[in-house]
């Protein structure tokens, strides 16, 4: 076999406003501090984060270890909580942005 393409890894700074806002959004809805993990696959976040030099994160409801497997599934409640997490994240990101202006 031969490698025909590659994507450079990307890791957002843990103290970036985006990571802080997402952490706060998760705390608001789930009531516990999230565990930050490295995604060992690739995705748009690698390309966007590296090419634009901006913090990028991947977030979604459900078990990250079951993602893209035959066992991947989420409940409607998990889906709706995920939407609320993202709404809160945007609110926290705006607040953090306004604070540093």
UniProtKB/TrEMBL annotation:
Gene3D superfamilies: Zn peptidases. Pfam families: Peptidase_M20. Keywords: Hydrolase. GO terms for molecular function: hydrolase activity. InterPro entries: Peptidase_M20. Coiled coil: none annotated. It comes from the Archaea. This is M20/M25/M40 family metallo-hydrolase.
């Amino acid at each position: 076999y031969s490698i025909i393409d590659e994507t450079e890894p990307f890791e957002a700074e843990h103290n970036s406003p985006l990571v802080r806002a997402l952490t706060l959004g998760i705390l608001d809805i789930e009531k516990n501090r999230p565990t930050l993990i490295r995604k060992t696959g690739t995705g748009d976040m690698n390309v966007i984060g590296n090419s634009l030099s901006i913090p990028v994160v991947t977030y979604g409801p459900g078990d990250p270890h079951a993602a893209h497997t035959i066992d991947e599934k989420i409940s409607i409640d998990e889906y709706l909580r995920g939407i609320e997490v993202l709404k809160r994240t945007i609110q926290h990101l705006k607040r953090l942005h306004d604070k540093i202006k």
